[in-house]
Amino acid sequence: MLFQIPISIIAHGSPGRCRKMYQRIAHIALVVKDYDEAIEFYTQKLDFEVLEDTKLSEDKRWVMVAPKGAKECCLVLAKAANERQTGSIGNQTGGRVGFFLFTDDFWRDYHKMMGRQINFVSTPATFEYGNVAVFEDLYGNLWDLIEPNENNKGLMKSS
User: Fold this and answer.
1) Using one digit for the tens of pLDDT, what is the confidence trace for 96-137?
2) Distance (Å, rounded) from C-alpha 159 to C-alpha 149?
3) Rounded CA gap, 104 and 73, in Å?
4) Would the pTM count as exceeding 0.90?
5) DSSP string covering 5-50
6) 90 CB-contact burial (10 Å; exposed 0-12 / middle 13-18 / buried 19+)
């Protein structure tokens, strides 16, 4: 005897119920020269926290860092393992801003970062999407420090 299962059950789990698809970017790999110097920079200069630091082998660790309280995405600090990867350290996005750090208080964080000797490569400016300034991480990767406003499509929403 052959049973027929309604396609809605196969696709959505139960008849008459469609689940809204949910996807998110969980991790972004950032190629680093040394795990410990990268951890020190992100935790001491940017106030990130270490979410995980697991030794996988003699040369490889699984290191995740994120801003305190971040819920959606984190950086995986990935130590360069060959010449090609080493060549991308500090230039993962070809000289463009590749990382965007949202804040709820631009001036607080800008002054704190300046006091911690973070190199800003642009002066603070106000755009239609919020206050922003570009800074470099310890390897030269470019980041935007942004306090988004209501026009920012990536608006930081409080929960």
Assistant:
1) 999 999 999 999 999 999 999 999 999 999 999 999 999 999
2) 16
3) 17
4) no
5) --HHHHHHSBTTB-PPP-----EEEEEES-HHHHHHIIIIIS-EEE
6) middle
